[in-house]
Design a protein that fits this description.
Blueprint: H1 7-17, E1 24-31, E2 35-42, E3 46-53, E4 57-61, H2 72-81, E5 85-91, E6 97-104, E7 107-114, E8 120-125, E9 130-133, E10 137-138, E11 143-144, H3 164-173, H4 179-186, H5 191-201, H6 214-228, E12 235-239, E13 242-247, E14 258-261, H7 265-276, H8 286-324, H9 326-342, H10 345-351, E15 358-362, E16 367-370
Antiparallel strand pairs: 1-2, 2-3, 3-4, 5-6, 6-7, 7-8, 8-9, 10-11, 12-13, 12-14, 15-16
Helix pairs in contact: 3-6, 4-5, 5-6
Length: 372
C-alpha cells in the first residue's frame, strides 16, 4: 500500500511548502479523479509544480501528467483559482488537511485538501461556503455539498499543543487495550510515530493504557515533543530492496535499516511516488463518464432543493409573524409613508434610532428592518 501522509508528516512537509506562498497559479491540471497538478510561478524562482495525490500526499514534483480533457472539478478550479496568488498555505492542525488561500485584489478563495480516507478537495469562498467539491459526501456531522458551510473533523487532542494533563486524561479515558493503538487512533499519531513514541519512552507498546503511570505519562509527552522538534532529515527506508516507508526525520524505529537520504521531504515524496510506487489509473468509459455527470447534477439539484426548503420554512415563519402582528406592522408602514413626505431616508433612519421595533433602515434598498 502506498504511503499516506500522517499529521506529523504533514507538519514537516508544510515547512517546505511555505516557499510556495506569494506564487501565482499559472495552470491547473488533473490526472483521472485522483491527482491534481498546480503549476505556480514565483519571481526570481520560476516554475514550481505541486502534485496532489488525493488521500496520499502532496509535494513539489519535477514533472506532471494530465488528461487531455480536464475534469469538471479541474475546470471549476481553473475558473476560480488560476491567475490568483497563493497568499497562504498551512495545515489545519492536528488534522490531515492542507488549507490553501488564493487571493487577487479583494477576492479570496479557499481550497481544502483532505488526506484521510480516500481524500477529497473542497473549494470554498472567503466565507467558507462550499463552491464545489471533488467528492460530494454526507456524513452524520458534516455535509460536503455546494452552498453548505465547510466543516472538518476535529480530533479531541492537538498533538502540537498537547500538555501533560491532556496525556493523562487521554490515557485514563482510552478504551483501547494497547498503548500503541491508543496513540495511533485516539491521539492521531499514526502507527509509525506511535511505535517511535513507545521506543523513546521505553514503554512496551502492548501495555494496557490503564496501567500507564505518571512517570510514563511524562515520558510519552517528552517523546512526542522530541519528535515534533526534530530537524528535517528526509529518508526513504528500504527492506530487502523494497521501499517500505518515507520519513521526514530520522527515527529510532528504523535504526539499522537501509536508507536513502534526500535534501528535502518533498524530494523524498517525489522520488517515492514517481519511482517506487505505481498507480493504476482507471480510465472511465464514455458511458461511465455520462453516468457520473448525471450523478453530479442530481447531487447539486438535491442541494438546491434542500436550500429552497430551508428558505421556504424561513419565509413561512416570517409571514406568520407578520400576520400575527399585522396591526403593528400596518401602523409602522403608515408612519414611514407619512415621514417620507417630509424627510429624506437619511433623516428617517436617524429619527428611528433607538426605536423598540424598527432595528435598521437600508438606505440603498430603502428597506425597513423590524424585529417582531
Amino acid at each position: 500500500m502506498a504511503k499516506q501522509l500522517s499529521s506529523l508528516d504533514m507538519h514537516f512537509l508544510l515547512k517546505e511548502l511555505k516557499d510556495l506562498e506569494k506564487s501565482r497559479v499559472d495552470r491547473i491540471y488533473n490526472l483521472g479523479e485522483g491527482e491534481l497538478y498546480m503549476q505556480f510561478h514565483k519571481a526570481g524562482i520560476g516554475k514550481k509544480i505541486l502534485r496532489i495525490i488525493l488521500g496520499k500526499a502532496a509535494f513539489i514534483s519535477e514533472q506532471k501528467s494530465s488528461d487531455e480533457k480536464p475534469s469538471h472539478f479541474c475546470m471549476v478550479l481553473r475558473k476560480h483559482v488560476e491567475g490568483k496568488t497563493l497568499e497562504e498555505i498551512g495545515q489545519i492542525t492536528p488534522e490531515r488537511i492542507i488549507k490553501f488561500a488564493f487571493k487577487s485584489k479583494d477576492e479570496l478563495k479557499l481550497l481544502y485538501v483532505e488526506f484521510f480516507g480516500k481524500g477529497n478537495a473542497i473549494l470554498c469562498d472567503n466565507g467558507n461556503t462550499i463552491i464545489e467539491a471533488l467528492i460530494k459526501q454526507k456524513f452524520k456531522d458534516r455535509t460536503i455539498l455546494p452552498k453548505h458551510a465547510y466543516l472538518h473533523p476535529r480530533m479531541q487532542y492537538n498533538i502540537f499543543e498537547i500538555k501533560k494533563d491532556d496525556i493523562s486524561n487521554f490515557i485514563k479515558s482510552s478504551n483501547k487495550d494497547k498503548l500503541i493503538t491508543a496513540l495511533a487512533t485516539e491521539l492521531g499519531l499514526g502507527g509509525i510515530y506511535s511505535e517511535e513514541v513507545c521506543l523513546l519512552s521505553r514503554i512496551d507498546k502492548n501495555t494496557n493504557p490503564k496501567k500507564i503511570n505518571e512517570k510514563e505519562i511524562s515520558a510519552i509527552l517528552a517523546s512526542i515533543k522530541k519528535i515534533i522538534g526534530k530537524k528535517i532529515d528526509s529518508q526513504i527506508i528500504y527492506r530487502n530492496g523494497e521501499a517500505i516507508d518515507t520519513v521526514p526525520v530520522d527515527l529510532e524505529l528504523y535504526k539499522g535499516e537501509d536508507k536513502k537520504k534526500f535534501s528535502s521531504f518533498n524530494e523524498v515524496l517525489d522520488h517515492y511516488f514517481t519511482n517506487e510506487v505505481k498507480f493504476i489509473l482507471k480510465k472511465e468509459s464514455k458511458y461511465q463518464s455520462q453516468i457520473n455527470e448525471i450523478k453530479r447534477i442530481i447531487t447539486e439539484q438535491e442541494a438546491t432543493i434542500s436550500s429552497l426548503k430551508s428558505k421556504e420554512e424561513d419565509n413561512r415563519r416570517k409571514a406568520e409573524l407578520i400576520y400575527t402582528n399585522y396591526g403593528l406592522v400596518k401602523q409602522i408602514l403608515q408612519e414611514i409613508l407619512k415621514a417620507k413626505e417630509k424627510y429624506s431616508w437619511e433623516e428617517i433612519r436617524d429619527r428611528l434610532k433607538g426605536h423598540k421595533i424598527v432595528k435598521d433602515v437600508d438606505l440603498k434598498e430603502k428597506n425597513v428592518m423590524v424585529e417582531l
